[in-house]
Write a structure and sequence with these properties.
single chain; alpha/beta; TIM Barrel; eight-stranded parallel beta sheet; 7 helices; binds D-xylitol-5-phosphate; binds zinc ion
Length: 216
Amino acid sequence: MNILSPSMLSADFTRLREEILAVEQAGAKYLHVDVMDGKFVPSISFGMPVIASIRKASQIIFDVHLMIEEPIRYIEEFVKAGADIITVHLEACSDVKETLDKIHACGIKAGLTIKPNTPAESLRPYLDQVEMILLMSVEPGFGGQKYIESSTEKIRQVRAMIEESGRDIDLEVDGGINLENVDTVLQAGANVIVAGSAVFGEETGKKAALFMEKLA
Ligand code: DX5
Ligand code: ZN
């Protein structure tokens, strides 16, 4: 099944509840929640209090993308705040296995992600420990960047690795996805689509609905 995971980073924060309800009503099953620490990535976004507060507004699945150094330090707190899936960066963990174990020990799904310059092969040792792989198709840190074209081949490569593993692992792609290139991303093998600037801001519900048609 294809899933839309709109990235809240591009939402109008003065109307966060409406923005979330708009994507939910359009059929998005996930809300992509980008957490940045100003260290693993240059920017800082938002943290636990914001997540805990929007948790009360919606039942949508919170797909939390942690762009933070040593995320193991904060897993429990993000689960308490309302995360349903937590994805960590391979590059940010001194012990990837232990971090994924920690997420599972908290009773939620674990995802693993890599930056554009990290080879797909580096994911292979962890395939039996994740429910989702997230491929970054831009350098993490900011919304509104351009999709890196070489990501398409990487998606194919990771989809093949997943097939080979025989496990039911979602393949999510994040960064620069819009209504023009989403077909390419899906055809290459992605089944969870993140879109921030192409969905949120103005006419959020309408834009989310157009994505949903592409994902059908
Ligand atoms: C970038 C974030 C993305 C970003 C996507 O660091 O991980 O989720 O918000 O935004 P767009 O779709 O605008 O590239
Ligand atoms: Zn993200």
